[in-house]
Amino acid sequence: MRRIVVTPFLVTAAAFLLLAACSTTPGARFYTLNASPMEAVPKASNLSLALGPIDLPEYLERPQIVTRAGDNRLDVDEFNRWGGRLEEEIARVLVVHLGRRLGTDRVYSYPSRIGADTDYRLVLEFRRFDGVLGGEVVLEAAWSLVDDRNASVLETGQASYRRSLKGTDYADYAAALSVLLARLGDDLAAALVETAPAGASRRSAI
Fold it and tell me: How far out from the chain centre does Cα 109 lie?
């Protein structure tokens, strides 16, 4: 039987190679969605709104950023991730955007730990919220506007938006998706204004 002799030199060399391999492993980068800069409508409404639940396709319910690599293939990047749960990122951006558009500070995500009586609730089902890195991103969603006093559905709609990326990295990808969210927020705010044109809280009249 052959004896394997391990010398201090071999141990040192192996440790050096292991440290070198670890030092070259890329670190994860984290991204957020952001509300687009806009001039807020002066606060002129007591209307209150709950936003949610927000449903996403299962393939998007992960921390890694998912991109398209063709009609039937997805890329999941281990080193480029969302800073939080994607549905929470979406809710945070839309809450800010809707509040600015509607002129109210009473827009809340749902479910929420904040106990607030709300006049309406917007329920969202995202069917697509992804795209091709360096190509085009797509947002497709269906929504319902619900009277929170009696749970009746007042209006339903669908939305679809596309935007070409200005660059080829994940920062550009997240920025383009943020722009699509702003467009969705504009349309949702317009639909709500049509339903409650006076912009006043309906609970105040109860």
Answer: 13
List, in order, residues 6 or more apart from 49 with CB less than 8 Å away: 98, 102, 104, 106, 107, 108, 118, 119, 120, 121, 122, 192
Provide the percentage of residues in the chain whose pLDDT is more than 90: 61
CB 53 within 8 A of CB 123: yes
The tokens describing 160, both together, are: 């679809």
Between 4-8, 34-38, 85-89, 158-162, the lowest mean confidence (pLDDT) is in 4-8
Angle (deg, nearest 10), helices 86-102 and 170-195: 50
Separation of first and last alpha carbons in the chain: 92
User: Which tokens in the block code for residue 123?
Assistant: 């329920």
**What amino acid is encoded at 58 in this protein?**
E
**What are the C-alpha distances in Å from 3 to residues 6, 9, 14, 70, 156?**
10, 17, 19, 54, 77
